[in-house]
């Protein structure tokens, strides 16, 4: 029993997909796309060298495309600044006065908290929005 070249390419693509499912490595899926392209090249009747070149080219192109797409996407906010993780983010607090060390004492949720201004912002009295929690301190932005 002899296997067609396209069957071998499809089997390798299937192995790459299974490996991707087991490991969660997204780039193996991109390599499976390249192996599928090699199978299509075999179906088209291209020689073995051309099949390898098509598979390598498509696999490399998809891996690079996935890498640069993922790199260009803005990252998720840190859990400290993510409203879905920390419900304090986005709440408004009133700051009456800032201390010389750059902190302020605020009443929030029935307790006294220490607020710090986000770096690069001017600490002025008034309403501020909680940007993130840093330990037990509220990092705030002017509201």
Automatic annotation (TrEMBL):
Task: Give the species this sequence originates from.
Answer: Melaminivora suipulveris
Q: List where the protein spans the membrane.
A: 7-29, 49-68
Q: What keywords does the record list, in alphabetical order?
A: Membrane, Transmembrane, Transmembrane helix
UniProt-recorded name of the protein: NfeD-like C-terminal domain-containing protein
InterPro entries referenced in this protein's UniProt entry, alphabetically:
NfeD-like_C (IPR002810)
- Which Pfam families does the UniProt record give? NfeD
Q: Which residues form the NfeD-like C-terminal domain?
A: 87-142
